[in-house]
Every structure is written in structure tokens, then in C-alpha cells.
């Protein structure tokens, strides 16, 4: 399919030979499961250390550069638009913890943030004590202490990412995890903030997650196994050899994910083990660590739950967010002693009952309130309820902060247990992120929103120049699929505009309203941008997710096509000028719709795409494969799952049709979706497609799952993706 172009790319000199795509050698490898044999000609591209593979990938990038050379000016324009709208010298809103205000600075010309802190005033007992200090961009703060300069850490390194940090309660030690390769394996160092010196303790190949014990003498951290599955919680006693670190917990079930954190009151280490369908929580009481980890509800009960322990009027309580007889989850309050009894004999007091129209995402506590994250009418919101009377007939009603917009996202931005305020982050598609402190309601008082910051947007941005509406597409089975439709307010509905459809649709992840500077560059070129809230996501509750996973996964793909059909018939766009975009599991979605309805798209951008899902999930030794069984099913043991996946996975279903322009964007060091998946996919597409449109592989040789590191490289990546789409759908000129 060829789309009209608003501005034609400069033609190449007549003497220049057309770019020729690299052709990988075919090395047939037969894979047989459940009586079915699939011959894979490109599996050898998995050999990451093979010089022939590296040489082939470099040829792919050279071909991509040649094919997209005419988009260079457009990429530069979009990059500059992003840059010119971004206040480069900026800082986060300070957050108070243990007598300090912590915040991050960004400096113009620097790619990474600088982590800082300054002393706090007051004892924290009054709302006024929680008013952040005035910290202005580019202005020195008296007493400011730099904890970590990401730019210094990244100097001379091909990649840098901060994977977490922790500070001891006395404020003396700072532990941080740095990734220098993009493989999400971190080096942990500990800095003495009194002297600025690094301790000799160095932990290599740690995973996400750091926490100090209350006395600051022990550091807890995570370790992943060879398949990048986090499976061990380890303890490092400061000053002892790392080789002597002890394993506090090890999870041997390859289908279970492990993580940890501190309870809200920091009296417990909370170890969470689970998958998408059930979980298990184990608590370490810091007042009695010799007892070891204590299990609350064992995984054998097949309950998906989160637990928040806290002390109330001298009694140890557990606040449970769970799906026991509650598909959308509910909240219960339980005395900790109840968990010593068989499950059937335990008494759980209902705090928030199950509701088919309300999805409970999670709950936490402060010293005075329960704070719940919930989703209603697709919108994520926050609700606060006093702890007094919780779970009894005297329980007070929950209070939600009120906002003006119809489509928005309000989420927790952090809280301290003893604070009278909680931090909220508010955003919508055209409202830049706002940071509020919400004064927790007490009787008739409180409930006040205190605006701390709205992210500045430069370049003359005005939210009233844009419109976001909620529309609905109708899927093949009659299901109504919500859409977020974004456009310029002055766009004429004459059927001539370009459109882009974006989707994800897996793991119960919701595509919530959120401001994005890069997206403005598409809208300002007359693009109607549609976010398709397809099944497999969490926008419409747990059932919405269940209806788009395992043996219902194809609903995700048909929902996306229905969203595309809505756009094509909406009167806003020319049906020949529609592009599609999605990443990771959304990249699988892109591959599936490319096979399902290639004629509906002028171009598709698949970012780090999971397009060879069946091959990956059939091999439990590959990174994270076994963890995927709860999402897609287990094709190793279940022939029905194998046949169902074989019928939709993109790589196996490339067919002899005319595919649109396709860009597969990946990173060599990605550990979540290996580069080999898109590398194989583009080879198969080129070999089988009957069309003439280019299929390119853009590969970042020094990046991870999120691409190259640093904000400028991130902007360049987004500019590349958007320029590829805009060029294909004829939306290259600013309106």
C-alpha cells in the first residue's frame, strides 16, 4: 500500500544504486511439538557471539540508514521540536524522608539526572513541615548535597541506567544500582554521604530492588537466574565479603517472579512471589528477624493478593487487596494472628467490597489513613479512608480528590507513613504532569489539593489547541472497545487527514491518559492519534484482561483492527493514510495485525517486538520464557495452547501478501525481547511478501529494552519512529 505524501523525500542521484536489503543465509532447523513440525530458517541469528550475526546486524542497520536517509531532516525537526518544548534545566519536586528533602536535577546539555538532597526543617508533625523547599532550576541551594551525578557515572560508558537506590534511616549511607550495558544487571555500590567516599562493598549482577535494614548494617538486594528471572533475595552485611552474602529467600518455580520492598511503616521486609494469576507474600519482622520469613497465604490457595502489614491500637493488622471470590479484587482487614489458622477458618473483615464496575489496583496505609488505587470508567484514581473504624460498621466513607477533566490519570507519587499528606501525580493527554500534595481528610477538615508543580512545556504550548475524546469501536463479537482519540482542535473533519493507531493489550497494563511531548509533533502535522484500549489490558477491569490472554488472545488483535476500522470510517482520516505503532507485547500486536489486515495500514512501527513468541515460550531456558506461561499459556505441555499460538504468532504466520512499510526497532542487549525475534521476522517478511514496500530493522547495538540510554538518545529514538510513520502516511509538514 502506498500512501500519499505531503512532502516528497528528495530523490536520489540517478547514479546511485537502490539500497539492497541484506539476505541472511538460510539454515533450516526443524522444531517439532505435539506432532507439528515448523522449519525455522533463521534461528542461527540467535548466536549473539557469532561474528557473522554481528556483521549481518550491522548490514541491517546500514540498509535501514540508506532506506530512511530521506527522513533525516524530518527526524532532526521532530528532535528539535521535542527539545525546544522541554525545559532542559529542571528538577523533580522534593520528597521528604527522615529529615531530608530528596530531589533530582536535570541540567541543559546533560543526558542524565543528578540526585540531590537538602536538610528539612520541622519535626514533620504539621502540614507546613511537608511544604517542599523552593528549589529553582539552575539556582544553587544552600546546603545541597549531591548523592549521585548520573552524567559522571555515564562518562565513557556506552550505556547507563540507574536501577534503584536506598538510604539508611540515619541518612549516612546511600546504595545505588547502575547498569552499564542495558542488560538490566546492575552493579551496586554504597556511598558514605558524610565523606563522599565509596565503601569497598561492590555487588555485581544484581537485579532491581534495594533496601537497608533499620540499623543500616544490612543491605537487601535481588538476584536473577540465568533466564533473567528474579529468584533470590540476598542479604549483604556491610563490611563483609560479598561472597559470604546469604540467601534470605530463593524461588525455584520457574513460572514465578520474586520481588521485595519495605512495608509502609518500614517494620517489615515484604517478599512478594507470584504470577498473573496467584501469589504469595512472606514477611520478615525487623523486630524479630531471627524468626525468619513468615508466609501469609500460601500460593496453593490460588489467591492473587498484596499485603500491607501495620500496627493499629497495639494489634498487628494486615491490609489485603485480593481476588478471593472477587474478580476485580476487594480490600479486607485481617488480624495477623488469623494467618496461623487454616484459610477456611480465618476471619477477614471487608473494607471495600467487590464491584463489577470498579477494579481495585492496590492499597497502602499511613499512620492515619488507608489509601487505595482504583479504576472506574477506565480512569485510575485515588481514594483515602481513615483507619479509625476500618472494617467495622463505623468505617468512614472514602474520599477522592476531585479533578476537572473527564479523561485523566491520578496515581500515587509516594508517601511517608507519618505524613499528614500524600503525594499524587496527575496528568491527562494534554495536561502536563502535575505534582500535588493531598492533605488527608480528618472529619470535616483536610481533603485539600496543594499544587506543588506543573511540568513546564515551552515553545508556546497551549492545551486548548488540542482535543481528547472518548470514542468506541465495535469488535467482531460485538464488544465495545474504548478509544482515546487525540487531535488538534483546529483539524477539519474532511476525510483527508492522516491517522496513527497505538496499542499494547497484555499483562493487564492500561494505556492511561498521559501527557507526551513527542506526540505533539505528530498532532501538529495533522495526525489523528488513536489509543486503542484493547482486551488484554486492564482499562475495563479484570475481565477485560482475562478476555485478551491465553486462549482469548486473538481478541487483542481483532480489537485493534476494529479500532483501525473506526478511524477509517470516522470521517477524520483518509483510510489510505493510517499507520500503526506498538512496542514489546504491543510489538507482537503489530506483527499479528500486519498478518491479519496488512491492507489497512500504510506503515507499521514495531518497537522491541515480541514477534517470535512461540519459539521463545517453547524454550524455558530463554530469558523470562517460563514466566510467560501465565499470560499466553504453556505450549510445551498443552497442545491446544500450542495450536492456538501457532495460529497467531507473527513469525510463523507471515504470508504471501503485500505488506506495508514496516520498521522493527530493537536493541542488541535487550534481555526481555531478544533482538533475534525482529531480526528473524524481517527476513521472513522480505522473503514472503508480494509487495514492494521496504521492511527495515533498526538496531541499537548499545541499548536495552528501552533503547539507548540518556534523554537525548531517547528523543532521537522517538523522532526516528515518528518520522518513519509520518513519512509513510504523508504527514511531514507542520500545519
Fold and architecture overview:
With 735 residues, the protein is an alpha+beta fold. Helix content is 17%, strand content 33%. An eight-stranded mixed sheet has the order 30-31-33-32-34-35-36-37, sandwiched between helices. A seven-stranded antiparallel sheet has the order 8-9-10-11-12-13-14. β27 and β28 form a beta hairpin. The protein is globular, with a radius of gyration of 26 Å. The relative contact order is 0.11. Residues 1-16 have low confidence and may be disordered.
What's a quick, concise take on this entry?
This protein is α+β, with helices and mostly antiparallel strands and 735 residues long. The protein is built from twelve helices and 37 strands.
CA radius of gyration: 26 Å
User: What spatial order of strands do you see in the largest sheet?
Assistant: 30-31-33-32-34-35-36-37
- Unreliable segments (pLDDT under 50, ≥5 consecutive)? 1-16
Strand content: 25-35%
What structural category arises from helix and sheet content?
alpha+beta
Mean pLDDT: 93
Shape: globular
Terminal CA distance: 25 Å
Structure summary, number of beta strands: 37
The tally of helices reads 12
**Quaternary status:** single chain
Helix content: 10-25%
Largest sheet: 8 strands, mixed
